[in-house]
Amino acid sequence: MSFLVELARGAYPDNALNGFTASSQFGLDDARAMMWLSQLAYETAHRDKVKSILDAWHLTMPAFIANDPATGLPPRSACVVIAAGRGATFVTFAGSDPLKFEDWITPGNSTFRLINGTDIVPTIPPAQPGDYRHVGQSIQCPTDGRFDGAPGQISAAAANRPDIIDGAIAAGLADIRALAAFRLIRRIGPRPLDRLAGALPRMVRDHVPANYFRALAIKL
User: CA 58, 59, 64, 67: dihedral to nearest 10 degrees?
Assistant: First the structure.
């Protein structure tokens, strides 16, 4: 993965998983733990770094897969970190890296999908009855909002959300409100690159990992 989606080793707190409980039910502390574990899948260019973090979290690493083709094409494999311990096995896949073209052409239990605002990625491809459905149950917070207080489960009828058209409308309305408040460009994290990411279209900006950390009330 590239520097755009990596965090410094010091950004990973040793107690990041202390609130985790192995359960089939949704819990915000578990979601925060999953956010940290998911971030590790973006660090596969640094195996020793990942191992050091997992050691601090009292987890082992049964498997580690890094995708680093010299040319970027064709895609060879996903970036995957498998960790074990604390009564569970965690399988994390990296999502989209803006600097890796192959990520954009490679398709990515109780399962919960946490969706930050108008994030475009969970809307594609559009769900089709009898053809394609999104996995698991969706839990969505408002754009620029937080997951605190989000319901643990939703009805099956709403589980196949969000819809890309609804997301585009919500993003447009949010941009209008932000423009009226003179805060259209907003820094989303502690790094200089995060300030630049604030200028991305909202449906892309809501996908940036730093915004998911913020929505989960995790300080970077």
Answer: -70
Q: Which two tokens stand for residue 29?
A: 């502390």
130 sits in the region (left: phi over 0; alpha: psi -120 to 50; else beta) called left
- List residues bridging with 93 in a β-sheet: 80
Spatial distance between the Cα atoms of 210 and 191, rounded to a whole number of angstroms = 10
User: How far is 98 from 121, CA to CA, in rounded Å?
Assistant: 13
3-state secondary structure of 8: coil
pLDDT in tens, 112-169: 888 999 999 888 877 776 677 777 788 888 888 888 865 444 444 456 778 888 889 9
- pLDDT tens digits, one per residue of 95-110: 655 545 444 444 637 7
From CA 144, how far away is CA 40, in angstroms rounded? Answer: 24
**Rg of the chain, C-alpha, whole Å:** 17
Q: Residue 108 corresponds to which tokens in the numbers above?
A: 């990515």
